[in-house]
Design brief:
elongated; about 475 residues; 4 domains; 16 helices; Nucleotidyltransferase, domain 5; alpha+beta; single chain; six-stranded antiparallel sheet; nine-stranded mixed sheet
């Protein structure tokens, strides 16, 4: 392979770094001779010395892509070219690989090889072998407690990585800036297809369990990419908000799907949007597992209608809810020692309830017996006596602090004022104001502490659901 021709080069030191510049000579009419014109930075020398391997800037590599296939090293006034292989390493580096830390990255290589991640990355980011760069950066983030990206170069010098060539922080930023939504969709699409293919290959007929969660946050990073209205936080930050929803494959912990939604959309409704996209996701033989906040009737009905399995954590604190009705009906049974599971150490009962839903929801359609379908849902009710006792003890301690402050004439904070209103009775006699604890209000506040409820269309065993 013929070496590319270097442009005229200067090396100048700034701080502790030697930067590499190129320049063009211009004709000086007054002196009637050529002189050095304006210079342009094209990279830096790694290692902090004047001699060493040049890390070229991405802008230079875009203009002169032939330099991507070579390592260029400055030795005195000479520049040594060494061809790079597909992984961005030289033959010398391959011979010295035994001197690099490789145990942890070898283990990660095996995990990647056994999962669809590597193949999905390769399909989504084939240009300039970006998939190897992304994988190497991921290794760095996983293996370093302090994963400040400025420390990547030092890490890469002593660690065997999928991409062996150096990556400056600016190069890493460019790798991520180039990522487009279509590439992300390609990655997740290939990942899902590969996962389903693996399942079929090994004859695994179990459902794929997907952990589902979402979070709201400020979207200042992609403020210019999404057309979001601005909302105010309580601290008056005027920043746009998003809901980020993710599905994670339970066995591997690897992200299966994610989507950003407008911050005005409640978390529970984002699930409906994911379900409505099911045709594009090709989700088959899966079970959604989620924390509280997603178990409303609409999400349950949407899952049933789209034949998506689910295991939802149910809100038990909602006053006069169906969950509280079930708990009230089983309170005595949930204190029977025969109901305590020896493995989970909690009391548990499963209620099979016939659930009716619209099997084929059409806008404007009049509901009738013909449009409805029914199925059995498993409502698993749990009672943890220790949690209930801890909640009672904690409440009593908070009540005592309020009483002590009232006795000493001290000002109550916001939380204490709320507790004063929730569980105390106020008495006024002339100019005198006094407070007594309402045992009824305390009992009501503790009524559903220690209880948990899970609902599923698939999982009938309470222990397995837990």
């Amino acid at each position: 392979m013929e070496n590319p021709k270097l442009p005229p080069i200067l090396v100048n030191k700034a701080g502790s770094v030697y930067y590499v510049y190129t320049y063009k000579n211009v004709w000086d009419r007054e002196l009637k001779r050529s002189k050095r014109g304006e210079s342009k930075k094209i990279g830096k020398i790694l290692g902090g010395q004047k001699d060493g391997v040049i890390c070229f800037d991405e802008s230079f590599l875009q203009e002169r892509p032939e330099f991507r296939s070579f390592q260029v090293e400055r030795k005195g006034k000479e520049y040594v070219f060494t061809p790079l292989n597909e992984s961005g390493t030289t033959l010398t580096q391959l011979q010295e690989v035994k001197q690099l830390h490789a145990g942890a990255t070898w283990a990660l290589d095996q995990l990647v090889a056994q999962s669809p991640v590597g193949e999905a990355l390769k399909w989504a980011f084939p240009q300039r072998r970006d998939y190897l760069k992304i994988l190497s950066i991921c290794y760095f983030i996983i293996l370093n407690q302090d994963n400040n990206i400025s420390k990547y170069e030092t890490f890469a010098e002593v660690t065997r990585l999928p991409w062996g060539a150096p990556l400056a922080p600016s190069s890493i930023s460019r790798v991520f800036r180039k990522i487009r939504n279509q590439q992300i969709e390609t990655y997740f699409s290939v990942f899902r297809d590969e996962l389903l293919e693996q399942q079929e290959k090994y004859g695994d007929k179990n459902e794929i369990t997907l952990a589902l969660d979402s979070t709201s946050g400020s979207n200042y990073v992609i403020n210019n990419l999404l057309n979001l209205e601005r909302h105010r936080y309580e601290d008056e930050d005027n920043l746009p908000l998003i809901n980020l929803l993710a599905l994670t494959e339970y066995e591997s912990g690897i992200a299966f799907f994610y989507r950003a939604y407008d911050g005005k959309v409640p978390a529970a409704k984002t699930v409906s949007q994911v379900i409505s996209e099911n045709a594009g996701l090709s989700l088959k033989n899966v079970v959604f597992v989620s924390d509280k906040g997603y178990s409303d009737a609409k999400n349950i009905n949407d899952c049933l209608r789209n034949k998506l399995g689910f295991l939802f954590n149910v809100q038990c604190a909602m006053p006069d809810s169906f969950a509280q009705e079930l708990i009230d009906g089983e309170k005595e049974n949930l204190r029977d020692l025969n109901r305590m599971d020896w493995l989970t150490k909690v009391f548990q009962i499963t209620k099979e309830i016939n659930w009716t839903f619209e099997s084929d929801l059409v806008e404007g359609q009049v509901t009738s017996k013909k449009t409805k379908e029914s199925t059995i849902l498993y409502w698993h009710i749990y009672f943890n006596r220790q949690f209930a006792e801890n909640a009672r003890q904690g409440l009593i301690e908070r009540i005592d602090r309020v009483r002590e402050k009232i006795y000493n004439g001290e000002e109550l904070d916001e939380n204490e004022l709320t507790l004063l209103e929730d569980v105390f009775e106020k008495h006024e006699e002339g100019d005198m104001i006094s407070y007594t604890i309402s045992n009824e209000k305390v009992d009501q506040k503790l009524r559903y502490k220690g209880y948990q409820m899970l609902v599923s269309d698939k999982i009938s065993d309470a222990r397995k659901a837990w």
